[in-house]
């Protein structure tokens, strides 16, 4: 006769699956919206019930034991099945409700998603939103993310996806800087100017500046002594006269409206269509996900159309 599955064992399996995937009890706790001590105790109870050690613990790391590695994949599948059941149940309700975990890059999160969330919550008060911003790539399935919004080319995956509104990349500088140093008229005129470059957090690579010329696309990386790994930091330096930098127009639009920044080489600006929303197939019918994607599409069209260059 099979031993019945105790409720606390299911809780322990969920904690074990997340901790094994994320490499720490603290990260698992954030993913499950509980305390690290709750995750640790759940795993300890599970180890006692199973009679095996699942992790090798040190003050700095948490690693799966040989037995833990064997059981981890099964626990992850069980957790995914449980989440799919919850999503299927949620889909039977027409009104969006429940938790919605969103992961996004900093520019999209700060300038598009965060401003739209108050109106989204007023329209759907039964939805609770957990917005996680980082330019580093997250594992959507392992981290329990409902919707992720990413900028750039994406690898092939089994995730569902939707391209959002196109946006423009343009150079900007403060009026004071241009008055002192002159206005470049062509990309070649950038030589000798102070520039601020963006470094991608996910890859460590610098953003190559692309211009659309009569002869086709021109890619270059200007000489610079200043780099930043967040668009907001780059824009802040430009506002204070730090030089010329390239950014998405939806990021700088408020500064342009206030007269703090002006477009540079706007006739050579390029349009990009590389902002994508992704979500697991298990969330396909979730009313909260569907409602958010619809609101996000509208917000992107509005924000990407904001004048910035």
UniProtKB/TrEMBL annotation:
Superkingdom as given in the UniProt entry: Bacteria
All copies of domain HTH lysR-type, residue ranges? 8-65
Keyword terms of this UniProt record? DNA-binding, Transcription, Transcription regulation
Q: Which SUPFAM superfamilies match?
A: Periplasmic binding protein-like II, Winged helix' DNA-binding domain
Recall the GO molecular function terms of this protein's record.
Answer: DNA binding; DNA-binding transcription factor activity
Does Cell inner membrane show up as a keyword for this record? no
- Keyword flag Transcription: yes
Q: Which Pfam families is this protein grouped with?
A: HTH_1, LysR_substrate
UniProt-listed InterPro entries = LysR-type_TF_proteobact-type (IPR058163), LysR_HTH_N (IPR000847), LysR_subst-bd (IPR005119), WH-like_DNA-bd_sf (IPR036388), WH_DNA-bd_sf (IPR036390)
As for family, the record states:
Belongs to the LysR transcriptional regulatory family.
Return the protein name: LysR family transcriptional regulator
Species whose genome carries this gene: Aureimonas flava
């Amino acid at each position: 006769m099979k031993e019945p599955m105790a409720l606390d064992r299911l809780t322990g399996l969920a904690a074990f699956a997340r901790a094994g995937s994320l490499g720490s009890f603290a990260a698992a706790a954030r993913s499950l919206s509980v305390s690290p001590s709750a995750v640790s105790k759940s795993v300890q109870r599970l180890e006692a019930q199973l009679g095996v050690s699942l992790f090798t613990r040190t003050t700095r790391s948490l690693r799966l034991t040989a037995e833990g590695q064997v059981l981890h994949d099964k626990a992850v599948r069980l957790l995914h099945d449980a989440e799919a059941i919850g999503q299927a149940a949620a889909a039977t309700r027409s009104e969006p409700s429940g938790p919605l975990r969103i992961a996004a890059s900093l520019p999209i999160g700060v300038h598009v998603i965060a401003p739209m969330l108050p109106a989204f919550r007023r329209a759907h008060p039964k939805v609770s939103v957990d917005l996680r911003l980082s330019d580093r790539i997250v594992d959507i399935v392992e981290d329990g993310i409902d919707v992720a919004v990413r900028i750039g080319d994406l690898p092939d995956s089994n995730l569902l996806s939707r391209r959002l509104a196109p946006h423009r990349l343009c150079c900007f500088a403060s009026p004071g800087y241009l008055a002192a140093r002159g206005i470049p008229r062509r990309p070649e005129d950038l030589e000798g100017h102070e520039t601020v470059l963006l470094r991608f957090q996910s890859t460590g690579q610098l953003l190559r500046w692309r211009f659309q010329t009569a002869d086709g696309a021109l890619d270059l990386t200007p000489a610079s002594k200043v780099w930043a790994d967040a668009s907001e930091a780059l824009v802040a330096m430009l506002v204070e006269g730090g030089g010329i930098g390239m950014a998405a127009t939806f990021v700088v639009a408020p500064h342009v409206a206030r007269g703090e920044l002006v477009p540079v080489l706007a006739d050579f600006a390029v349009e990009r269509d590389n902002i994508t929303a992704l979500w697991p197939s298990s969330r396909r019918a979730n009313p909260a996900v569907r409602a958010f994607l619809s609101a996000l599409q509208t917000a992107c069209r509005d924000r990407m159309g904001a004048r910035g260059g």
